[in-house]
Amino acid sequence: MAVIREFKVQPPQRPNGNEMNETKRYLLKRVVKISVWILLVLSLVAFYISLRTPYYSLEYSLIAMGLWVIVFGLNFWLKRI
Asked: Rounded to an integer, what distance in angstroms lies between the CA atom of residue 44 and that of residue 34?
């Protein structure tokens, strides 16, 4: 004897808010990671210039320190996303 089963057709589901948020979170993480690396390189360049230039070395050191603090904060925030 054959068993006949009924299959109900489900309407297509819309993506809920969580899936959209995961995509946005992934893109935000990628953008922040790229900015962290760019700012870190700029910080190292500013520090190198501060070591080599006879004038404005303190200003370049402060710029490098400020960029490094921003990188540190972004990296800390990136771990919390």
From this structure: 16
- pLDDT at position 81, please? 78
Q: Is 25 exposed, middle or buried (0-12, 13-18, 19+ CB in 10 A)?
A: exposed
State the pTM of this model: 0.70
User: What span, in angstroms and rounded, lies between the C-alpha atoms of 56 and 62?
Assistant: 10
Asked whether the CA dihedral 59, 65, 66, 68 is positive or negative, the reply is positive
**In this structure, what token pair is assigned to residue 59?**
């200003």
Measure CA 4 to chain center.
53
